[in-house]
């Protein structure tokens, strides 16, 4: 009985692929799940496994052909007899790849779905290598999306027998990450040396460029040293060539090979002191969103200052009682968040956003709190902060801050904010102009508390002062509204009783 081999689904935005290479030829014995052919798209390479064990009967497309999802690739004659009749020398690679499956049940670890708006991720550092024994829920690898980092745990206890994606590779939900043989110590000896833990792709790989990539490099006059491969084992894909061309790579002179660097160092002696690091997905998104906010919004900033002595005296008086009752320390963010929600009720335009020719007024306050993490700035959201007490706000901010530092923030934690608070004062900033977190229309910048001489009732006193900055979208927020908003925040902080009395 013949079983058809067809092009699998490659992702929502991918409709075709190129035949990169066949691992088998007609008449070869194959085992179930053994890779038969490698397909190359603009984003990733995909290995198509054998659906059944048997003998490869026919190959309907040749290397270099372009095929669509669902197209017929070839067929397999089912049955162990077909597999057994293959020459021993040709069957050896298949036996080596099938050994882990024969030794123990193999479980595939796939790229998880990270949210509706997330269609791809970048493979970060692997925590394991081929041959490592893992327990259930051990972290295997970290995936970086344009919103957050996500750790992928092991679904079972067993041994890592294959790592399918290299660090730096771009993957989509459902793509294979690795395979784990079930059971303690299973299939360690069966792991092939060639399946060692992946390393970032570098030029000069032994893998030949994919057919479509090789054709494009020839057309553009590029050499392999000018293009960094992102495919398996550093293979150069069509997308890599397009990226190199976009980055400014040009045809190499005939007399000498072209340098591998996209940008020449400032001086020959400086080359050894430079380091080129690829931006993470998160950092790329931060850069894009901040620039988009500058290009789209009519952004202005208004400033004021607040005397922090009343809040500091209140904290000093009640901090021990507060922590004992609520189990969390009494910080400044609870007061600032509460002061902001009070001001938003009076000036709703600061809590609104523009959608085309409409203004959407929010009858709730989801306050984003900017948090610096090792991977970049993230803005988790305190939902319905206007309905929360200062203690509840402090608890939620503390929880979100820990999740941010540990890389545990989910997509849901960072969506839906209506206004943002950024505290540059924790890093020593005395004054700055924060950039809007689009599509929001306002962001409050907190700064360092510094003692300064101020006039109080005709007398010069030293007070702990803080500069406040409100950046706002002038398309929707008038100057009078912006200044009034910031004054209301200042009044609430300098007279905390207003927060209690809702004034």
TrEMBL record:
<comment type="similarity">
    <text>Belongs to the 2-oxoacid dehydrogenase family.</text>
</comment>
<dbReference type="InterPro" id="IPR050537">
    <property type="entry name" value="2-oxoacid_dehydrogenase"/>
</dbReference>
<protein>
    <recommendedName>
        <fullName>Dihydrolipoyllysine-residue succinyltransferase component of 2-oxoglutarate dehydrogenase complex</fullName>
        <ecNumber>2.3.1.61</ecNumber>
    </recommendedName>
</protein>
<dbReference type="InterPro" id="IPR000089">
    <property type="entry name" value="Biotin_lipoyl"/>
</dbReference>
<dbReference type="InterPro" id="IPR001078">
    <property type="entry name" value="2-oxoacid_DH_actylTfrase"/>
</dbReference>
<feature type="domain" description="Lipoyl-binding">
    <location>
        <begin position="2"/>
        <end position="77"/>
    </location>
</feature>
<keyword id="KW-0450">Lipoyl</keyword>
<dbReference type="Pfam" id="PF00364">
    <property type="entry name" value="Biotin_lipoyl"/>
</dbReference>
<dbReference type="InterPro" id="IPR036625">
    <property type="entry name" value="E3-bd_dom_sf"/>
</dbReference>
<comment type="pathway">
    <text>Amino-acid degradation; L-lysine degradation via saccharopine pathway; glutaryl-CoA from L-lysine: step 6/6.</text>
</comment>
<dbReference type="InterPro" id="IPR003016">
    <property type="entry name" value="2-oxoA_DH_lipoyl-BS"/>
</dbReference>
<keyword id="KW-0808">Transferase</keyword>
<dbReference type="InterPro" id="IPR023213">
    <property type="entry name" value="CAT-like_dom_sf"/>
</dbReference>
<dbReference type="InterPro" id="IPR004167">
    <property type="entry name" value="PSBD"/>
</dbReference>
<comment type="function">
    <text>E2 component of the 2-oxoglutarate dehydrogenase (OGDH) complex which catalyzes the second step in the conversion of 2-oxoglutarate to succinyl-CoA and CO(2).</text>
</comment>
<dbReference type="Pfam" id="PF02817">
    <property type="entry name" value="E3_binding"/>
</dbReference>
<feature type="domain" description="Lipoyl-binding">
    <location>
        <begin position="106"/>
        <end position="181"/>
    </location>
</feature>
<feature type="domain" description="Peripheral subunit-binding (PSBD)">
    <location>
        <begin position="208"/>
        <end position="245"/>
    </location>
</feature>
<dbReference type="InterPro" id="IPR006255">
    <property type="entry name" value="SucB"/>
</dbReference>
<keyword id="KW-0012">Acyltransferase</keyword>
<dbReference type="InterPro" id="IPR011053">
    <property type="entry name" value="Single_hybrid_motif"/>
</dbReference>
<keyword id="KW-0816">Tricarboxylic acid cycle</keyword>
<dbReference type="Pfam" id="PF00198">
    <property type="entry name" value="2-oxoacid_dh"/>
</dbReference>
């Amino acid at each position: 009985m013949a079983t058809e081999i067809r092009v699998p689904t490659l992702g929502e935005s991918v409709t075709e692929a190129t035949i990169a290479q066949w691992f088998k030829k007609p008449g070869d014995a194959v085992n179930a799940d053994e890779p038969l052919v490698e397909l190359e798209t603009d984003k990733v390479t995909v290995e198509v496994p054998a659906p059944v064990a048997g003998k490869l009967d026919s190959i309907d497309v040749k290397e270099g052909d372009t095929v669509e999802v669902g197209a017929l690739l070839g067929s397999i004659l089912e049955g162990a007899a077909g597999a057994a009749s293959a020459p021993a020398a040709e069957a050896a690679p298949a036996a080596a790849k099938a050994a882990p499956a024969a030794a123990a049940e193999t479980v595939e670890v796939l790229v998880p779905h990270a949210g509706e708006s997330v269609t791809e991720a970048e493979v970060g550092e692997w925590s394991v290598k081929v041959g490592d024994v893992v327990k259930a829920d051990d972290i295997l690898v970290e995936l970086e999306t344009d919103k957050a980092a996500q750790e992928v745990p092991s679904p079972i206890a067993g041994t890592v027998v294959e790592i399918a994606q290299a660090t730096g590779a771009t993957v989509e939900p459902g793509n294979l990450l690795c395979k784990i043989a079930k059971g303690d110590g299973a299939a360690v000896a069966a792991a092939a040396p060639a399946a060692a833990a992946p390393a970032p792709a570098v030029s000069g790989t032994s893998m030949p460029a994919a057919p479509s990539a090789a054709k494009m490099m020839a057309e553009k006059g590029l050499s392999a040293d000018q293009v960094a491969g992102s495919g398996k084992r550093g293979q150069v894909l069509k997308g890599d060539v397009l990226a190199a061309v976009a980055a400014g790579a040009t045809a190499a002179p005939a007399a000498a090979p072209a340098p591998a660097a996209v940008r020449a160092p400032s001086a020959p002696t400086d080359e050894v002191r430079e380091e080129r690091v690829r931006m993470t997905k998160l950092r790329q998104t931060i850069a894009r969103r901040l620039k988009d906010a500058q290009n789209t919004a009519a952004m202005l900033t208004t400033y004021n200052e607040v005397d922090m002595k009343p809040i500091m005296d209140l904290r000093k008086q009640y901090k021990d009682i507060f922590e004992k009752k609520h189990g969390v320390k009494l910080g400044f963010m609870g007061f600032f968040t509460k002061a902001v929600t009070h001001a938003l009720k009076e000036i709703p335009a600061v809590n609104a956003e523009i959608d085309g020719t409409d203004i959407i007024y929010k009858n709730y306050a989801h306050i984003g709190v900017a948090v610096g993490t090792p991977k970049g700035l993230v803005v988790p959201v305190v939902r319905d902060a206007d309905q929360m007490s200062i203690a509840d706000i402090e608890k939620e901010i503390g929880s979100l801050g820990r999740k941010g530092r540990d890389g545990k923030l989910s997509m849901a934690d960072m969506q839906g904010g209506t206004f943002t608070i950024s505290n540059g004062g924790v890093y020593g900033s005395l004054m700055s102009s924060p950039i809007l977190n689009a599509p929001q229309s306002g962001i409050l910048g907190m700064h360092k508390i510094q003692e300064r001489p101020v006039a109080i009732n005709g007398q010069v006193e030293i007070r702990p002062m803080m500069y406040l900055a409100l950046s706002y979208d002038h398309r929707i927020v008038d100057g009078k509204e912006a200044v009034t908003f910031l004054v209301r925040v200042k009044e609430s902080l300098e007279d905390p009783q207003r927060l209690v009395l809702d004034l």
